Amino acid sequence: MVLNYIWIAFFLIAFVVALIRLVFWGDMEVFPNLVNAVNGAAKSGFEISLGLTGVLSLWLGLMKIGEKGGMVQVISRLIAPLFNRLFPTLPKGHPAFGTMIMNLSANMLGLDNAATPMGLKAMEQLQKENHDKESASNAQIMFLVLNTSGLTLIPISIMVYRAQYDALNPADVFLPILLATFFSTLAGLLAVSYVQKIRLADPVVMAYLGGMTLLVLGTIYGVSLLDKEQVKVISNVGSNVILFTIMILFVAMATYKKSKCV
């Protein structure tokens, strides 16, 4: 409901401001520019939605294959000890665990298009466990914070965009992004855990967080030993190799499971 009011406010505020510019400043171009901007935004929205449809179809299809083949369940079991503590309201073995970790993994690799459909799927699964359909549950809030804080080990998308715009060194944002997203994720986790009274002083939680910290520090150390061009190449190749390997594992696991049933 609030979003409806915000949407209406956009139009009303734009109209009032344009009218003021026309009456008091004699700006004869303001309304033509306003209408052109509205049409341009509508066109951009459609093009973005159309482009995202293919990506959504691909990854939602792969997620379905992963669920049927059991790969999502395998991933869920690997992360279950941590997620059972961060998401205490979810039943053990919930399929959202696997979807959430796939989303967070794609974000870590900087692959936003791959992360989006899995994030939407995870929210859909979490909503089924939400007793108050009009408000976000604790699990949804925790996932949203972890998702939007966006721990990124390999910011491949940003480096690609920088390369397209002729940045002198597209990979020089690697360490700043890694540090910024690591601490933003840690801060978000601590804040939500405090509000939701989640006990982080738990051996399992500390082990996972300690392991993640060591991974980040190890990545920083490894990158510091490479020159800028090597960082760019390794980031680009490594992230996409990992992503395609996940796709192959999903398909292979499903094929193996199906062959056993025949």
TrEMBL record:
<keyword id="KW-0472">Membrane</keyword>
<feature type="transmembrane region" description="Helical">
    <location>
        <begin position="141"/>
        <end position="161"/>
    </location>
</feature>
<feature type="transmembrane region" description="Helical">
    <location>
        <begin position="173"/>
        <end position="192"/>
    </location>
</feature>
<feature type="transmembrane region" description="Helical">
    <location>
        <begin position="237"/>
        <end position="256"/>
    </location>
</feature>
<protein>
    <submittedName>
        <fullName>Spore maturation protein A</fullName>
    </submittedName>
</protein>
<feature type="domain" description="Nucleoside transporter/FeoB GTPase Gate">
    <location>
        <begin position="51"/>
        <end position="158"/>
    </location>
</feature>
<dbReference type="Pfam" id="PF07670">
    <property type="entry name" value="Gate"/>
</dbReference>
<feature type="transmembrane region" description="Helical">
    <location>
        <begin position="5"/>
        <end position="24"/>
    </location>
</feature>
<feature type="transmembrane region" description="Helical">
    <location>
        <begin position="204"/>
        <end position="225"/>
    </location>
</feature>
<dbReference type="InterPro" id="IPR011642">
    <property type="entry name" value="Gate_dom"/>
</dbReference>
<feature type="transmembrane region" description="Helical">
    <location>
        <begin position="44"/>
        <end position="62"/>
    </location>
</feature>
<keyword id="KW-1133">Transmembrane helix</keyword>
<keyword id="KW-0812">Transmembrane</keyword>
